[in-house]
């Protein structure tokens, strides 16, 4: 495989963008990316999206967007892996460029979720779980995560409030991210008094959905400009677990995170001690904890300790969610994997201002689809 | 890129399989493929599917199927390009193997359509067209194709009955395909008297939907057994056109077919005169005509001539739809691209019995998503 580099990034603000269509939003991110890459077009378009066929009455998203952004005639299709659709699309584009078949690609993740009634969005999110064996029993997607969190608290003796640092850190960082949905800080009291969503997950444990798109421009490494802005893909791996949580040997272990991070570390010739910044998938605070443990940053059952010991902020030992994470930047599901990658590129370029991590040489992004069913891990280094 | 070969194929009968779930059907095709390839598992799974999120309440289809078929832990995701999802998934798997990232993959196309009310399926099919600019105006997917067919007849002076040979040929061939949905012949009278669906498309111009799955097992060519059953991918290309028919310079030309077939011919070092068998996308008889013209088998406006001159049957100059085509084998939309590829492999292996084409050395499959918006062309040769 050829090595591949990211030479351009783009993103939209995440919010309730009722004045913009699905294609408008994706176009915004793509045009920003083209401008940032100083390119006029790419050879192919890979679209990460989960639910356009479920709530936007729109499939055939590759052609739909290639048409809109002026990539007339170019190869394009959509990749879907629930909330990991963004990273899955990135990996598809990566392999196409790495294979030598094409020399440039745009990968865009996009989701338009807020035009719907909330119960329709809840139903759409549940399509990430097993329709026959989980959802049919009446459990929602947040409900599944609540079951995991409750079990985790029971097993290891943590209190709900021990998870607070994850949400507080995410909000604190989002204040400095102009693209974040929730650009406000929260206090421990706000966390503790937030309305319950699905016990023990309250509103401050759960990430907000939103409309948004993020994109990257990729080329073979030997075609990337050496201007200090290019970033090389040092590791890329995907793995799956059973789709139903109840089918797992251990519901408190993200086996697909363990498998994909192990491969990514090996490819990049690195390990947890060398990761300078980590954009993890904090769709719910329990997922942040399980991701940290699966990736070797905490012993099993000890994930909350990293937050309580104040190690996860931008000046800490392991900065996470430096642009707000899913919790405060927002979680437009099929776009999230691309937001994470864009943010790692921003960190490697040194473009993060108040939440810039010092001396970043290696960054990692991990994107989770379903309750841990599909997990992709990517490691990036400055060129 | 490494060259890639197909070493195993599998498919299910297409029909109203109310006793089987989405995963049951996909599993049937995958297990047949593993048996045919004499392999126990692959490194990755690529799923071609259009509407699981629209009508089956199920996204995250990669993990969902990897789990069911025992590929625990393996990389898996879904690729969507409307009715071209099958070929798009094949091309994604192809690039992953060609890149050197993996040494084996299963590509499965699956669709479960018949558990729904007909109007829900009609709405789901319309998600292949432009939700805002076509469907919102009240036009259905068959309606769009009817507009194209009417214009074609007007422009070139063909009568409706001139399209009959395509449907008659497809049905005649399906009689010998145990996996076909409609294993019956039809006469010219049946064609002429069929009920109208969307004028001028009648029931015999339109392919039946269905539940079904088809799959292939791919490996690098240098790892394929030399037993006369392996088939090499000689050409693979994808292209797009505007998603809305009204945006095209010429609605009677499949520009994405022209672009993708041109690339595929160049890669394979071949041309229309060397194609021994062609599985084209006869979702409607007008699409068969436009595909033949775009691929260089007929002059513009002359596609129906091939049927009227009796050249498209298995002993003719250009055999098409040798296993029944979409018209009679059936069209489980996201699976169709894989059925076409499986059928070309059967022809190259000489496994087609009564509809076997003689001396097949080169076969081509073309899969269309939307009203010509996404088109993939693949060329295969015996190893």
Number of separate helices of chain A: 13
Q: What is the average per-residue confidence, as pLDDT of chain A, rounded to a whole number? A: 97
* Greatest interface by residues involved: A-B, 66 and 66 residues
Order of helices and strands of chain A: EHEHHEHEHHHHEEEEHEHHHHEE
How would you describe the shape of chain A? globular
How would you characterize this protein structure?
The structure is a homodimer. Chain A is α/β, with parallel strands linked by helices and about 375 residues long. Chain A folds into two domains: about 5-115 and about 210-225, 3-Layer(aba) Sandwich (Peroxisomal Thiolase, Chain A, domain 1), CATH 3.40.47; about 120-205 and about 235-380, Thiolase/Chalcone synthase (Peroxisomal Thiolase, Chain A, domain 1, 3-Layer(aba) Sandwich), CATH 3.40.47. Chain A contains 13 helices and eleven strands. The longest helix of chain A has 16 residues, at about 20-35. The mean pLDDT of chain A is about 95. At the A-B interface, helix 3, strand 3, helix 4, helix 5 and strand 8 of A face helix 3, strand 3, helix 4, strand 8 and helix 9 of B. Strand 3 (about 75-80) of chain A pairs antiparallel with strand 3 (about 75-80) of chain B.
């Amino acid at each position: 495989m050829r090595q591949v580099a990211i030479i351009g990034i783009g993103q939209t603000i995440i919010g309730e963008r009722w004045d913009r269509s699905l294609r408008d939003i994706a176009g915004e991110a793509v045009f920003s990316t083209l401008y940032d890459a100083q390119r006029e077009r790419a050879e192919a378009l890979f679209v990460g999206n989960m639910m356009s066929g479920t709530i936007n009455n729109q499939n055939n998203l590759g052609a739909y967007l290639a048409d809109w952004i002026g990539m007339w005639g170019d190869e394009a299709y959509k990749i879907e892996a629930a909330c990991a659709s963004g990273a899955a699309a990135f990996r598809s584009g990566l392999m196409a460029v790495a294979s030598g078949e094409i020399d440039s690609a745009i990968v865009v993740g996009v989701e338009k979720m807020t035009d719907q009634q909330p119960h329709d969005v809840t139903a759409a999110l549940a399509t990430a779980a097993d329709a026959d064996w989980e959802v049919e029993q009446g459990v929602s997607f947040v409900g599944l995560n609540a079951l995991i969190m409750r079990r985790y608290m029971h097993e290891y003796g943590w209190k709900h409030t021990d998870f607070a640092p994850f949400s507080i850190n995410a909000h604190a960082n989002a204040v400095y991210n102009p693209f974040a949905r929730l650009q406000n800080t929260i206090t421990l009291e706000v966390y503790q008094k937030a309305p319950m969503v699905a016990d023990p997950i309250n509103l401050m444990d759960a990430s907000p959905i939103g409309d948004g798109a993020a994109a990257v421009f990729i080329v073979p490494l030997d075609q990337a400009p050496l201007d200090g802005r290019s970033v090389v893909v040092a590791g890329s791996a995907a793995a799956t677990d059973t789709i139903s949580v109840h089918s797992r040997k251990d519901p408190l272990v993200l086996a697909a995170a363990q498998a994909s991070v192990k491969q990514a570390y090996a490819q990049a010739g690195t390990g947890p001690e060398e990761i300078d910044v980590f954009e993890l998938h904090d769709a719910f605070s329990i997922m942040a904890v399980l991701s940290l443990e699966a990736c070797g940053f905490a012993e099993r059952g000890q994930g909350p300790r990293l937050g309580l010991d104040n190690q996860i902020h931008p000046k800490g030992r392991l900065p996470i969610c430096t642009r707000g994470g899913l919790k405060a930047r927002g979680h437009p599901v099929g776009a999230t994997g691309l937001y994470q990658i864009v943010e790692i590129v921003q960190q490697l370029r040194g473009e993060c201002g108040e939440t810039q991590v010092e001396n970043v040489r290696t960054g990692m992004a991990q994107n989770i689809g379903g309750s841990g069913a599909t997990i992709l891990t990517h490691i990036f280094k400055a060129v």
